[in-house]
Structures are given as C-alpha cells and as structure tokens.
C-alpha cells in the first residue's frame, strides 16, 4: 500500500516546483496581454482590426525577459550561493542551460514578430529575403540575431562547463547578451542615447537577477534541502543589491523619457511608470519583511519556513505584474518627441549643441552616466562599510588614512570624468575626450593605491561549506595565473601603450563617439588597463619582476604619452574631420586648435606620470626583492 503521508509530501513537493513558475508565467502573460490590448485600442479606435503581432510581441518579449532572468539568476546562485559539490548546484546549472535555450528560442520568435511589426503584410515570394535583410542590415534585427546566437552559445556551455571560473565567465556573458536589445527601443530616442541605453541595460540586468534568482530559490526550497536557511540568507543579500540598483536605474531612466512631472498622470507611459513604481515599492516592503522578520525565525519553526515560501510566491506574483508592465512599457510611446535634425549636432547625436565651454562650464556641466554613477556610489558605500566593520572588530592597527584618501579621491576623479564636463563636452571637443581618457587613468592609479582588495580580505567572512562568497572570489582572482601575468609590467605596459594609441585611431574614436557600447567599452577598457598597469608598478619587486623593469615601465609610459601629445599638436589635419570638424558649428572654436589643446593635455599627463609614479619605482628600486611566490613562478613559466 502507498503511504498517505509520503504521497501527500510528494504532491506538495511537486506543487512547490510547478506553482511558482507557472504563476509567474501566467501573471506576466496576462498583464502584458491586457496592457498591449489597451495600448492598441488607444492608438486604433476600431478594435476589430487589432493585428495579432501587436499583441503577441509584448507577450513574447516579457517571456523572453523571464527566460533571461532565470538564466542570470540561476548562474548567480550557482556562483555565490551553493557549494560546488551540492546536488542543488548541478540543478541550478541545468536550469541555467534550459533557460538560455528558451531565451534563444523566444528571441528568434520575437525577431520574426518584430519583422512583421515593421514590414507589415509581405508577399511569400520575398519574405525570406526581406527577413534576411532585416536580420543582417537593420539595427533591431541585428540585435535580435546577436542575442539569439549568444544565448544559444551560453546554453551549450552551461551544459558543459560547471567549474567556478567558467560559471563566472557565463555570468559576464549573460550580462553582455542583454546589451544589444538594450540599445534599441526607447533608449535610441531618449535625450541622451548613451546614458539611456546604459540605464535600460542596468535595469534589465538587476530585474533579471532578482526575478530569476527568486524563482530559482523557490524551486530549490521546494526540495526541502539541508542548509535552506543559508540559501535564503545569501539570496536575500543579492536581492537587496538588485532592489537598490533597480530603483536607481529606474529613476535615471524615467528622467530621460519624461518631460515634466505631470507626464506621470497625463500620459499612458507615465501611468505605466507609476504602476511599475508602486509594484517595486511593494516588492521592497516584502523584501524588508523577508529580511527583518522571517529569515531570523527560519530555523526555529516549520511555520516560519512555510511563511517564507508563501512570501516568495507573493513576491513572484508582484514580479509577474512588474515584468508584464515593463513589456508593455517598452511598446508605449514616450512623452519626449525627437526634434527635427537641423544642426550637425542633432544629425550626429540627436541632441542640441550645448553652450560653449568656459571655466564655469568645467564646474557646472554635469550629466548622468548610470553605469559609472551607480558604480561610484556603490564603491563608496562598500569601502565605507568595510572601514566600519574593521573598526567594529577593534583592531589595534588603524587602516592608513592615505589609502582611504586615495580611494575616495580616485572615485571622485572617476565620477567627474564620466559624469562631469569631460563627459558632456567629450562628444564635441577632442580636448575633453582626451581629458576624460587621462582622468580615468589617474583615477585607476588612485584606486589601486586605496588597496580595496586588502581591506576586503580583512573584513569579509570566509565560508566553510565549499561555496564561494566575495572573499573567496577575490582571493581566487588574486591567486590566478591570469592576474599574475597581467599585473606584470612586461604585460601591463604594452597593454597600456597599445590601448592609448588605439583609442585615437579614427575607427575606434568614431565608435566611441556615436555608439553607446563603444563609449562604455572605452571607459571600462581604459579603467581596467590603468588598474593593471598601476598594480604592476605599485607591487613590491621580486626576482622575476625586478625593480628595474618597473622603472623602465614608468619611463616608457611617460615617453608614450609625450609622443602621443606631440602627434596631436603637430598633426596638420583634424583627426576625424567628419565629426569634430562639423559638430561644433556655431561655436567660435577651431577644431585644429582644440586638437592641439588635446596634445597639451597629453603633455601634462606625461609629466604627471613621471612625477607621481617615478617615486614609486625608485622606492621599489631601493627595496630588497622578495622571493617569488609559486604563483609568480608559475605565471612567468606559463
């Protein structure tokens, strides 16, 4: 005979696996469908002629968002929540692979629907050829195609690769796969294309990690695994970060798409924003209750565990509403209307030409670059929190004030370079683009001097269950052969020199000016290369990495920027005349004179490199080289 209790337990377990995702899919689809119908009825008085494409496309987009979120959430849980040896780890990776495959399939369906939405009725004779042109030549079609290809590759690799390093690569790849479609839609028509696209990407990444992670957590908890309390606690911290990032990026995104506060209640787009905001606030309240009341009682009683599961299901329902609203929002016209492109500035970047740059503009000109604004704020909070916890442990040795000052100054310089006058005027003046280049490199040197990794290792708790938290990932990165090679002056110096010359080539410079992805890649690449070079010259000397090599690296960098400045000053023609030669039409400024000013900026930076980094190298030259660690020897031999 079948045991009734075992049968009941089995049914409850199956219900726990099936109900959360089914409810999320149902609510998301219903909300997206209802809002799509409402939006179409507002545009078309006759409800009889509602095309299927206009209704199915938002639903497909919302389901695609859920699939990408499930992929991202499961990968993050596998990377930082679960031990590698846990059966749940393999299950999370299986969910990731399935979600990636579903994401790829839904993206292809979305591409077909988007094609019919743009092309309308098409003859069967030319449909395949026309659809091929859509995928290969139209920006939206290319975005769909790239997303589907990358999602397919991630699906295959998720089945094959289960090691921590590969999972980290898959997390980064999944985040990057969200970029192509983030560059389309409302971001392309907002007041600042680069900033608006960045806000959409961050918003999608945070929402995906939160929704997908919560859904995967619910599935794992339904199996009643050992250590369920630890899983809930760790994901709760991830959810808090996602909530903060989601809120900040949402506010920034709305500022680019609303002309006035009254748009929130007078336009359909604003009303959807309000509805989504209310849903987010309710999710925040649920998350606060989750952290403050339920998690602390999780291990005390079965009723507390049941309440946690019920709250997760309720959060998933709210997330279904938010996801469906977001899908409808992406298909709703914004209150901002693109102006007719008359001036060269409007034709090239879709924005009005700002006032000519003067001394006051250096201080008062600001924009919002979401990636770097949120990054600087987050880095400031994390460093301050680490200092607080270090002091709370009553350590006798004080953290050096010079390191704190270097870190905070570096963040301030980075914030000004990416959100201040260089970011505002870099599109129009090569001198400001060069100043941004220089300030990012200066910021990287200051950030390395702040020693954030050393501070983090002192305060972050270590895990003993085989999983990898922040401390374990930092230590793994430090001990890797790749880090040992890239932080050696023999590798870091050519990277710095090559990158600096590369960014002044016409092709790359053009890409960084008119493509949001190129702009973000330029800043991020320069920051990473600057961090590697600064780490290579600030680390103690070893027998494999003698101080003389460090000194040569500093001198080489200084000479490189001196030569680059000389090229800019003595060039007979303007670099990129099709851009810098026409975009400032209406200003009393000579593009060639501004290019010479850019060369003077490089001369100044060359002097700064010689003055600031030479003492570091000299100090290393006088020090006694320590013996190589096994990591240094292995990295050198490899």
Topology, pairings included?
Layout: H1 4-43, H2 52-80, H3 87-119, H4 124-137, H5 139-160, H6 164-177, H7 179-182, H8 193-221, H9 228-257, H10 263-266, H11 268-294, H12 302-329, H13 344-349, H14 359-364, H15 370-392, H16 401-419, H17 421-425, H18 430-449, H19 452-459, H20 470-479, H21 481-486, H22 489-502, H23 506-514, H24 516-538, H25 547-570, H26 577-580, H27 591-622, H28 630-637
Helix pairs in contact: 1-2, 1-8, 1-12, 2-3, 2-6, 2-8, 2-12, 3-5, 4-5, 5-6, 8-9, 8-12, 8-24, 9-11, 11-12, 15-16, 15-19, 16-18, 18-24, 18-27, 22-24, 22-25, 23-24, 25-27
Q: Brief description of this entry?
A:
By secondary structure, this protein is mainly alpha-helical. The chain has helices spanning about 5-45, 50-80, 85-120, 125-135, 140-160, 165-175, 180, 195-220, 230-255, 265, 270-295, 300-330, 345-350, 360-365, 370-390, 400-420, 420-425, 430-450, 450-460, 470-480, 480-485, 490-500, 505-515, 515-540, 545-570, 575-580, 590-620, 630-635. It is about 75% helix and about 0% strand.
Can you walk me through this structure?
With 638 residues, the chain is mainly alpha-helical. Helices cover 77% and strands 0% of the residues. Helix 2 (52-80) crosses helix 12 (302-329) and helix 8 (193-221) crosses helix 24. The radius of gyration is 27 Å and the shape is globular.
């Amino acid at each position: 005979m079948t045991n009734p209790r075992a049968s009941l337990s089995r049914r409850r377990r199956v219900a726990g696996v099936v109900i959360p995702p089914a409810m999320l899919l149902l609510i998301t689809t219903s909300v997206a469908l209802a809002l799509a119908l409402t939006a179409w009825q507002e545009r078309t008085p006759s409800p009889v002629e509602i095309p299927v494409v206009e209704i199915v496309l938002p639903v497909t987009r919302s389901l695609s968002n859920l699939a990408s979120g499930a992929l991202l959430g499961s990968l993050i849980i596998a990377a930082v929540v679960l031990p590698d040896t846990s059966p749940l780890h393999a299950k999370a990776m299986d969910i990731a692979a399935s979600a990636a495959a579903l994401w790829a399939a839904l993206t292809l369906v979305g591409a077909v629907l988007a094609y019919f939405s743009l092309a309308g009725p098409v003859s069967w004779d030319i449909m395949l050829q026309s659809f091929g042109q859509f995928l290969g030549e139209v920006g939206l079609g290319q975005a769909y195609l790239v997303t589907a290809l990358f999602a397919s590759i991630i699906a295959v690799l998720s089945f094959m690769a289960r090691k921590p390093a590969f999972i980290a690569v898959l997390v980064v790849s999944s985040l990057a796969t969200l970029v192509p479609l983030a560059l389309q839609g409302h971001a392309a028509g907002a007041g600042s294309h680069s900033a608006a696209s960045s806000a959409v990407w961050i918003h999608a990444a945070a929402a995906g990690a939160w929704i997908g992670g919560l859904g995967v957590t619910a599935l794992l908890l339904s199996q009643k695994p050992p250590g369920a309390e630890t899983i809930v606690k760790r994901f709760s911290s991830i959810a808090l970060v996602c909530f903060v990032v989601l809120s900040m990026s949402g506010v920034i995104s709305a500022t680019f798409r609303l002309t006035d506060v009254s748009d929130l209640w007078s336009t359909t787009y604003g009303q959807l924003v309000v509805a989504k905001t209310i849903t987010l606030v309710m999710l925040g309240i649920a998350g606060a209750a989750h952290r403050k009341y339920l998690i602390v009682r999780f291990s005390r009683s079965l009723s507390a565990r049941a309440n946690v599961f019920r709250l997760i299901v309720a959060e998933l329902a709210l997330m279904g509403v938010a996801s469906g609203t977001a899908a409808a929002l992406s298909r709703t016209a914004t209150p901002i209307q693109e102006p007719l492109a008359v001036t060269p500035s409007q034709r090239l970047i879709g924005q009005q030409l700002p006032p000519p740059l003067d001394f006051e503009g250096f201080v008062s000109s600001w924009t919002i670059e979401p990636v770097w604004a949120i990054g600087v704020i987050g880095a400031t909070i994390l460093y301050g929190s680490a200092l607080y916890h270090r002091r709370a442990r009553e350590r006798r040795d004080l953290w050096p004030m010079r390191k704190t000052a270097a870190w905070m100054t570096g963040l301030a310089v980075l914030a000004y370079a990416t959100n201040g006058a260089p970011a505002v005027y870099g599109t129009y003046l090569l001198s400001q683009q060069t100043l941004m280049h220089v300030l990012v490199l200066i910021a990287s040197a200051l950030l390395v001097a702040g020693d954030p990794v050393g501070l983090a290792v002192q305060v972050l708790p270590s895990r003993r269950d085989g999983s990898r938290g922040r401390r374990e990932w930092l230590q793994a990165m430090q001990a890797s052969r790749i880090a040992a090679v890239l932080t050696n002056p023999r590798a870091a110096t050519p990277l710095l020199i090559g990158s600096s010359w590369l960014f002044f080539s016409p092709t790359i410079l053009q890409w960084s000016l008119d493509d949001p992805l190129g702009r973000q890649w330029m800043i991020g690449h320069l920051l990473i290369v600057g961090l590697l070079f600064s780490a290579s010259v600030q680390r103690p000397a070893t027998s494999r990495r003698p101080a003389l090599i460090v000194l040569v690296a500093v001198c080489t960098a200084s000479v490189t920027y001196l030569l680059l400045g000389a090229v800019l000053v003595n060039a007979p023609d303007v670099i990129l005349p099709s851009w810098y030669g026409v975009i400032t039409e209406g200003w009393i400024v000579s593009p060639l004179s501004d290019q010479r000013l850019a060369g003077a900026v490089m001369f100044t930076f060359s002097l700064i490199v010689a003055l600031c980094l030479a003492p570091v190298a000299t100090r290393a030259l006088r020090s006694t080289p320590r013996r190589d660690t096994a990591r240094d020897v292995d990295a050198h031999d490899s």
